[in-house]
Design brief:
Strand 14 and strand 15 form a beta hairpin. The chain is globular and about 80 Å long. It has 16 helices and 18 strands. The strands form 5 sheets. Strands 2, 3, 4, 5, 6, 7, 8, 9 and 10 form a 9-stranded antiparallel β-sheet that branches. The protein is of the alpha+beta class. About 50% of the residues are buried. The longest helix has 22 residues. The structure holds alpha-L-rhamnopyranose.
């Protein structure tokens, strides 16, 4: 399912006053300097040899040096290069591959032919004419490993990488973190990797992934904002992102599914039904964390507009139409019928819309939204719930995502949810969830159904399996039983530090406080 939306002559509608407020809330970036902790000649795990600390190995044509920073960082880098042998009589020609996990280095980027641009792969070929010298790279990278492959030098000299210096950035302030640990060591590791994921994605905006797409997506923002509220509490960053979405929109007032901030803020010509509906959700959740009358006045009406637009896509039968379902994301799982999900997410968002309308003192509108919500829930129950079998059926299909969203929308009672979730494993066989984003919502459905042990067990099972597979930060897509899965047609393009996977931070902190102890 390629997600490529192109609108000819698309001109976002910008509101300079809102964008100025977004800019005023922009965070300062914290900088830190890092150097490799270990170095390998050849690929680790593929015949490479760990070099004793402090060794400077002269490299010749065909050699690969792998530098390991020991953790995931986002930043720019500089290589200090010297030579051994005669005066260099030819440039050094290098291939530099930056990788978030080791597995990326085992893939051949040239074999990737998927639908997301290969230009995201962190793979450079550079000439260095002046040696000894410094090679400062213009791009920002997200990585732990750098593989320096010598494509050529000359028979007269060898190249030495004296140093790699990384200038890493984040807008997350480690001093703001609650001083807690999770008493279960395995879950504590999950919690810390979750924090690291969020931290690396916190730049001038909440990026979805610092390797790819490096931009603000609404679905990701929702989960980052929840985890941020439970950890770094950079509420200005949430405010900034909400103002950005409000400040650059579709000409008809819809918020885009994602936006660019460089060189100027600009809505992307992509709209998603479910992502648009998360705008009021994020705003309401932000206001629950921090009273902000100005943001309510500026953005509340925009948030309600999203709901009215979505309500316009409900057919005469009381079910969301084809435009809504065709533009609903939910998960990268390919074969899923999304009608019940789209309807449920609308119901879910209407609850937040009512709260916003009440905050805005629009009692009449709040009442209308409540009535619409009740009507849509009634139709959803009639259309998608099979009471005899206690199953959710969407488009003739039983899938776990539909059950999850029907539960989150409150269409099923917690008791019905509990009984229906007994079938979760079986439903997964119809198509496993592909993203930590969907797994997050699955866990919140388990919590609503009172299945706390199962919810905790699933956090442990799913997120720990990424750590066992080599994660320092959590990934965009992961099916433990199918480690090579990619929504894009090749694992090398996947993002291995992806915002929407950081939610164990929120889940453990908010739903399992009894597992936290002060440090
Ligand atoms: C991808 C990104 C992003 C997600 C969208 C739907 O391009 O990974 O995180 O929100 O898809």
């Amino acid at each position: 399912m390629a997600l490529i939306h192109i609108i000819e002559k698309f001109q976002p509608r910008n509101d300079e006053a809102l964008l100025a407020k977004a800019e005023a809330a922009a965070p300062a970036l914290h900088h830190s300097t890092h150097h490799p902790k270990t170095a390998w000649l050849g690929l680790p795990g593929r015949g490479g040899r760990l070099l004793p600390a402090g060794t400077l190995t002269p490299l010749e044509k065909g050699d690969t040096l792998v530098l390991d920073l020991g953790d995931h960082y986002v930043g720019t880098c500089r290589l200090t290069l010297t030579t051994r042998g005669s005066h260099p009589d030819a440039p050094a020609w290098l291939r530099l591959r930056f990788a978030e996990i080791l597995d990326e280095l085992y893939e051949a980027p040239e074999d990737y032919h998927g639908w997301v641009s290969s230009s995201w792969i962190q793979d450079e070929r550079v000439h260095v004419d002046l040696l000894p010298g410094e090679l400062a790279l213009p791009r920002r990278y997200a990585f732990r490993y750098l593989a320096v492959e010598v494509l050529d030098t000359s028979p007269k000299y060898k190249l030495v990488v004296d140093e790699l210096t990384v200038d890493a950035t984040t807008s997350a302030d480690d001093d703001a973190l609650p001083q807690v640990r999770v008493t279960d060591p395995e879950l504590d590791r999950v919690y810390r990797v979750g924090l690291r994921t969020l931290r690396s994605c916190m730049q001038r905006e909440f990026e979805d992934g610092p390797k790819r797409d490096r931009r603000l997506w609404i679905g990701d923002l929702r989960l980052q904002a929840l985890s941020n509220a439970a950890s770094y509490r950079n509420m200005d960053l949430v405010r900034r992102c909400l103002y950005l979405f409000g400040g650059t929109r579709f000409p008809d007032g819809r918020v885009s599914a994602c936006l660019f901030t460089q060189p100027e803020p600009a809505a992307d010509d992509t709209w998603l039904f479910d992502y648009g509906l998360f705008y009021p959700v994020i705003l309401e959740e932000y206001l629950r964390e921090r009273p902000d009358p100005e943001a309510l006045a500026d953005l509340g009406p925009i948030a309600l507009e999203q709901l009215h637009y979505a309500l316009g896509l409900v057919g005469a039968d009381g079910v969301v139409n084809e435009t809504a379902t065709a533009n609903t994301f939910v998960d990268w799982q390919e074969t899923m019928d999304k009608t019940a999900c789209a309807q449920s997410i609308l119901i879910y968002a209407l609850g937040y819309g009512e709260a916003l309308a009440n905050r805005l003192r629009r009692a009449l509108e709040a009442g209308e939204l409540a009535a619409q919500r009740a009507a849509l829930a009634k139709t959803a129950r009639a259309r998608f719930w099979d009471p005899a079998r206690e199953r959710v059926v969407s488009g003739g299909q039983e899938n776990l995502a539909s059950l999850v969203w029907m539960i989150l929308a409150g269409v099923l009672t917690p008791q019905e949810a509990d009984r229906a979730l007994a079938q979760a494993d079986e439903l997964s066989k119809n198509g496993p969830m592909m993203t930590p984003y969907m797994h997050h919502y699955y866990i919140t459905a388990l919590l609503i159904a009172g299945r706390r042990e199962q919810a905790l067990g699933h956090i442990r099972y799913y997120w720990s399996s990424m750590i066992r597979a080599g994660a320092d930060t959590f990934w965009e897509a992961w099916i433990p039983e199918h480690p090579d899965a990619s929504p894009y047609g090749g694992r090398v393009i996947n993002s291995y530090c992806h915002a929407w996977s950081c939610t164990p931070v929120y889940l453990l902190h908010t739903h399992f406080p009894e597992l936290l102890a002060s440090i």
